[in-house]
Design goal:
By secondary structure, the chain is an alpha+beta fold. The protein folds into two domains: 329 residues, 3-Layer(bba) Sandwich (FAD/NAD(P)-binding domain); 177 residues, Cholesterol Oxidase, domain 2 (2-Layer Sandwich). The chain contains 13 helices and 26 strands. β13 and β14 form a beta hairpin.
Length: 534
């Protein structure tokens, strides 16, 4: 027996950034019922709420799917760790909280790729503004009364200030608002926080919507497949805490599991490349070869150095009294340095192959950041990441069997083109130059990575040995008009009635920046389209 209804108007699979937005939007109609399924548990945990504990959720644990890629041929056959959120709020509950929309040109390009003028920057901007509640910026490019709290980091680490100073020394412009008139330049990030705590999509959209009384949230619910009646989606077969349950959707099933889980569930349901499905033991129902293809991601390399200052974030005997004080203050008062985002400074600059907009994104951390936070190094350090924003490489997500609990094969196919490698090596050279700038002269001690500064070929070798994801997979169920398009312009799955995919997998192309805010914007537009057709 179940302790909830088994029939709803809408079933949303995935309570991440997109699923929370869709649920909130649809619930405005009090006459409909909505069920949102989440494979993970509740997000009520201090590791999620507390900004300084970011590495505790990124590096692994129960709120993380802890994926690994297939061996990457051009990265010394390494399997790369891919963290993705497995809890209410999805990856917005474990990310670095950066509020970044991407370049305006990205959204006009979407419209051209989709073949529908309704997707454009002017429309996207209005949705960003409606969602945003910004504590620092206002005017035509920002919103100040939306549900998504966005704020400036209240206390920048002294090393972060040196990073910004270094940018000026190298003739890069200052930019205090990467979501303003331009991306180019150096500045601090804004973050999705409300005062001292993380503000995820679950906080911004799902929790307020629950007060309407027409949303049922079911956690620890692993979807097995979408139920089909011919070419119509009628519900979901789902394992809820060990009990296999059939849920019926009177109107639509909406997949919001993200760039990995959504194509996986489509394939498990018999929707995808027919040859792939047969090889995995799944009977093809709808031959849709683009499902799982077109995978895009931001590949990242970081320069790391030891510094003199004890003000860097990290562990040392010198800093131990401050660490203890910060923990006690956080436990007793809920404030202090433990509530400040450690990933603070950023920049958008251009490689030698860039076109009209920046194609490199920099992320500065005033501390050691090694192997997704899995490795701890005593002492004081600083880390400067760079990723290539517009890769040409395309990968795939492909199920290995008909077992919903078995992770799919994740093959991002990194550095498949010389273009991508050139851009990333250019970026690596630039971050090394920045950390050698006069601003850091009194702090810099020695390199940790790269171990030595040699030729460009040496940097290529280091990239192949150490490059990692920057956590932005997209486009595996892309909207579009071509042969590999999976979705129509309203996020409907081609060849199936009553089924949509609304999440980052629907993006036709990766944006020039972090993907959380664009995913929520996309979900808002898709949900409006769903309501308009209801």
């Amino acid at each position: 027996m179940t302790d909830h209804a088994t029939e709803f108007d809408y079933i949303i699979v995935g309570a991440g950034s997109a699923g929370c937005v869709v649920a909130e939007h649809l619930s405005r109609d009090r006459d409909v019922t909505i069920c949102i399924l989440e494979a993970g548990k509740s997000d009520n945990h201090p590791n999620i709420r507390t900004p300084m504990l970011l590495k505790e959720v990124v590096s692994g644990g129960p709120f993380n799917w802890n994926y690994e890629t297939e061996p990457q041929q051009r990265l010394n056959n390494r399997r790369l760790f891919w963290p993705r959120g497995k809890t209410l709020g999805g990856s917005s509950s474990i990310n670095a909280m950066h509020y970044m929309r991407g370049a305006p040109e990205n959204f006009d390009e979407w419209g051209k790729m989709i073949g529908d003028p309704r997707w454009n920057w002017a429309d996207a901007l209005e949705r960003f503004r409606r969602q945003e509640n910004n504590n620092a910026f206002s005017g035509p490019l920002h919103g100040n009364d939306g549900p998504l709290h966005v704020q400036s980091i209240p206390k920048l680490n002294p090393l972060t200030r040196l990073f910004l100073e270094a940018g000026g020394e190298l003739q890069y412009p200052e930019n205090d608002d990467f979501n303003g008139e331009k991306q180019y330049g150096f500045g601090p990030y804004q973050v999705t926080m409300n005062g001292p705590r993380r503000w995820s999509a679950a906080d911004a959209f799902l929790r307020p919507a629950l007060e309407r009384g027409n949303i049922t949230v079911i956690t620890e619910a692993l979807a097995h497949r979408v139920r089909l009646d011919g070419k119509r989606a009628t519900g979901v077969l789902v394992d809820i805490r060990g009990a296999l349950t059939e849920l019926t959707a009177r109107k639509e099933v909406i997949l919001s599991g993200g760039a990995i889980n959504s194509p996986q569930l489509l394939q498990l349901s018999g929707i995808g490349d027919a040859d792939w499905l047969r090889a995995a033991g799944v009977t093809p129902e709808v031959d849709l070869p683009g499902v799982g293809r077109n995978l895009q991601d931001h590949l990242d390399i970081a320069a790391v150095a030891t510094v003199k200052t004890s003000q860097a974030i990290g562990l040392s005997m010198q800093r131990l009294p401050k660490n203890i004080y910060d923990v006690l203050r956080w436990m007793i008062r809920g404030d202090g340095d433990f509530t400040i985002n450690p990933v603070q400074g950023g920049a958008f600059i251009s490689s030698s192959v860039a076109e009209d907009i920046p194609d490199l994104q920099l992320v500065f951390i005033p501390g050691y950041s090694l192997n997704h936070g899995k490795e701890t190094k005593m002492g004081h350090g600083m880390t400067l990441h760079v990723c290539h924003l517009y890769p040409q490489s395309r990968g795939e997500i492909r199920i290995k069997s008909d077992d919903p609990a078995e992770y799919p094969a994740i093959d991002p196919n990194y550095l498949a083109t010389d273009f991508d490698l050139t851009a990333l090596v250019d970026g690596y050279e630039k971050v090394i130059e920045i950390l050698r700038a006069p601003a850091f002269r009194d702090e810099f001690v020695e390199w940790v990575h790269p171990e030595s500064i040699g030729s460009r070929d040496d940097l290529v070798a280091d990239i192949r040995q150490r490059a990692e994801t920057l956590y932005h997979p997209t486009s595996t169920c892309a909207m579009g008009a071509g042969e590999l398009a999976v979705l129509d312009a309203d996020c409907s799955v081609r060849g199936v009635t009553g089924l949509r995919v609304v999440d980052a997998s629907a993006m036709p192309r990766l944006v020039g920046g972090n993907t959380n805010a664009p995913t929520m914007m996309l979900a808002d537009k898709a949900a409006e389209m769903i309501r308009d057709l209801a």
